[in-house]
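Weekly structure sync, notes
Attendees: PL (lead), two postdocs, one rotation student
Agenda item 3: pending single-chain targets
PL asked that the sequence for the first pending target be pasted directly into the notes so everyone works from the same version. It is reproduced below exactly as submitted, 373 residues in total.
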Amino acid sequence: RVGYVNDTYVLNPTKQQLHRSKLDLVVAGTAQAVLMVESEADILPEDVMLGAVVYGHEQMQAVIQAINELADEVNPEVWDWKAPETNAELVAKVKDIAGSLIAEAFKIRQKQARTAKLDEAWAAVEAALINEETDTLAKNEIKGIFKQLEADVVRGQILAGQPRIDGRDTRTVRPINIQTNVLPRTHGSALFTRGETQALAVATLGTSRDEQIIDALSGEYTDRFMLHYNFPPYSTGEVGRVGAPKRREIGHGRLAKRALVAVLPKPEDFNYTMRVVSEITESNGSSSMASVCGGCLSLLSAGVPLKAHVAGIAMGLILEDNKFAVLTDILGDEDHLGDMDFKVAGTTDGVTALQMDIKIQGITKEIMQIALA
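Predicted structure, written out during the meeting:
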């Protein structure tokens, strides 16, 4: 954990130091690279945020060394696991049946039409290679090969410098449409649309008596700002049970909340309790960052005197050997088939929230610098 007090990085700050810190960042990694980042910041410049990640990675080396020394002392038996060999003949069959259909599918810019084309490709594979006698393991192997072909097509096109799935280059943001005050009976509301991702954000104001009471490990306190994120199944064209919020909805809501906390007015300047609810009405990548944008707009619509305007975006990564491409404003397919989901929120002056998770063995300072730029 890294804090930033009096323009100095602080390793594992105490509770008292965190109250004075402009940064609360948690970083995880290996001896070689960074794996995950989670942070909240008080509008800090990109170079300070990057420096905090690098500082955290440097400081964790002592812990990694201690773990390695303990492992050497215990000398556990290493499990010699080997990945199953790829069935080259089966790969060739699937590619012959569905390769051209998959390539055609990823030239379609609309998500639903693209999904329908991929379903058509999978149906052709099923009809040719799967029957009643095919066991579950064989079905899963065929499905895995099909998914790998999807990834190969998307990743190969991007690394070759070709347009992305929806025709954009690596730096272009999808078209944005904003409508405010869309709900006449609420204190504030905004409909934020970016490409095929849309969030309806609603802001409600209350008195100080409406503050949420938190019973935490550190004791009881009240919170005057709440942000709730809802992701109903219909937002991705599916049917499912709608019940209590699950960990994904809770986590996305927390991220969006952290992004906005830094710009809220002080209690003495605006003595109201604020609640934002973000309803995702359609989703094709980065709905949490749409919630940041919609949440900021709905608060402004409600008359909250924010210190600055906040926006958020998700960056992606395609990495093969020594070649890589950093993607701006990723789609759902690019998140699924890519190597990184790097969410950044902030104002024109600096970063307020950062979250990164990756599917590879780590990323370098150079890649993070490009993603933050």
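Discussion points:
- The longest strand covers residues 34-44.
- The first helix runs from residue 15 to 20.
Action: rotation student to compare against the earlier draft before next sync.
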